[in-house]
Amino acid sequence: MTNLPHFIQSPLLTGVAGVYHAFCGADPLPWRDGRTRLRRFFSIPPDSVGTLKQVHSALVFEMEDADAGNPDAGSREGDALWTDRAGRGVGIRTADCVPVLIAHRERPLAVAVHAGWRGLAEGIVPATIQALAARFGAGVFDGLIAAVGPCARGCCYEVGDEVAGALSPLPGGGAALRKGAVPGKWMADLLPVALAQLRAAGIAEARCDATGICTICDPRFHSYRRERSASLRQLSFIYLP
């Protein structure tokens, strides 16, 4: 059992019929790639899960066949991907940035959003919700369910004035910042900013939840701040069986 990769699930998303999801953590056997983990531990065909080349943008795409097959990378540049096709899923990779997974209570829909501080400042969360409304109509808001996974939190995430200045004007940004131990430093909590943006974009508070886990101080999850690795990332995915 100790060789199983760690993962957690959202109680809200678990209650949505017709979707399967996981916020994956660190794997005690790092040689296992994303394809192996999807196939072996989640019984999901790796060629059915789409990902993007994440660039901290506000670019949102519907999944295409060319996006699938490599959970550890992607070719199209963007930071949110969605599908409504059965037998398809979407995922994003993080190591301190915020993973957001979205489903719908009544229609097949799977959405994965990568939201670091730059992406939050660029507006990736509202851009994703707006893209869904443009595709499915404004009535889509009533059925959306969102879950925020492990990310950098205010207990550990020290940032400078540039990051604080980018976060402060955002919904929830002011409350997510507190002064650090030295001038010009701040402790930033990305979780409440992501949740506030989801609510501001039209998803009711009762239909949003979060794991609450800080990636920096929880070794079950990869953290760029802690590990200083440009390659160690965890996959968060949502799948329509």
Q: What features would you describe in this structure?
A:
49% of the residues are buried. The protein is of the alpha+beta class and 241 residues long. The protein has a single domain (7-240), classed as CNF1/YfiH-like putative cysteine hydrolases (4-Layer Sandwich), CATH 3.60.140. The two termini are 26 Å apart. The radius of gyration is 17 Å and the shape is globular. The chain contains seven helices and 14 strands. It has helices at residues 11-14, 34-42, 117-122, 124-136, 161-167, 190-201, 224-227, and strands at 7-8, 20-24, 49-50, 60-62, 80-83, 88-94, 98-104, 110-115, 144-148, 158-160, 177-179, 185-188, 208-210, 234-240. It has a six-stranded mixed beta sheet with strand order 4-5-8-7-9-13. The protein has a five-stranded mixed beta sheet with strand order 1-2-14-6-3, with no helix packed on it. It has a three-stranded antiparallel beta sheet with strand order 10-12-11.
Provide the descriptors you would attach to this structure in a database record.
CNF1/YfiH-like putative cysteine hydrolases, 7 helices, 5-stranded mixed β-sheet, alpha+beta
How are the SSEs ordered, and which strands pair?
Elements (H helix, E strand, L loop, with lengths): L6 E2 L2 H4 L5 E5 L9 H9 L6 E2 L9 E3 L17 E4 L4 E7 L3 E7 L5 E6 L1 H6 L1 H13 L7 E5 L9 E3 H7 L9 E3 L5 E4 L1 H12 L6 E3 L13 H4 L6 E7 L1
Parallel strand pairs: 3-6, 4-5, 9-13
Antiparallel strand pairs: 1-2, 2-14, 5-8, 6-14, 7-8, 7-9, 10-12, 11-12
Helix pairs in contact: 4-6
